[in-house]
Amino acid sequence: EALTLLVLVYPLLRGLALQLHSAVTGSYIPGTHSIAFVNCLNEQIAKDIARAIMDKKLAAYVNILPKSSALYFWKGELEESTEILLLVKTRTSKIGELSNYVRSIHPFEIPEIISLPIDQGNPLYFKWIEENVPRD
Predict the structure, then answer these.
(1) Where is the chain membrane-spanning (predicted)?
(2) Is 84 exposed, middle or buried (0-12, 13-18, 19+ CB in 10 A)?
(3) What is the pLDDT of residue 96?
(4) Could you point out which of 32, 46, 55, 120 has its C-alpha 20 to 30 Å from the C-alpha of 75?
(5) Is 14 in the same domain as 57?
(6) Interatomic CA distance for residues 31 and 43, integer angstroms
């Protein structure tokens, strides 16, 4: 029973220890920030979604990458198209809200909204993200 409790409490304790270590040393906690990828049909949709994300303060920075080719399966058929890709820089804690919001405004039936945690980077950049994306 003590082992079960330890297993349940360990992630919380580890998280607190990492935050304390970060506060004392000024080091970055890997995974605190994320990059989300969102595919869009064309540049106008990409700009509209990027602006909507920024207006809601769900990100500090959105890159709109130029048109690229894509291959994918849709309803059992191999499809080929072009798309615009958004790279969205934000707090990891905002990814759920970002995903829900983008799904609510995106014209695709199943838009690609995936994210990767940021392992390391410029601490001043992370501080800037935090200043521009409010906490929950």
Answers:
(1) none
(2) buried
(3) 97
(4) 46
(5) no
(6) 30
What's the one-letter identity of residue 35? I
Q: Name the residue type at position 11.
A: P
Determine how many CB atoms are found less than 10 A away from the CB of residue 64. Answer: 14
Kindly write down the DSSP assignment for every residue of 69-93, as one continuous string: EEEEEETTEEEEEEEEEEEEEEEGG
Co-location of 59 and 120 in the same domain = yes
Return the amino acid letter for 93.
Answer: S
- Residue carrying structure tokens 């970002």: 98
The residue with tokens 């509209």 is 48
What is the tens place of the pLDDT at every residue in 66-81?
999 999 999 999 999 9
The stretches in the chain having pLDDT less than 50 are: none
CATH of the domain at 39: 3.30.70.120
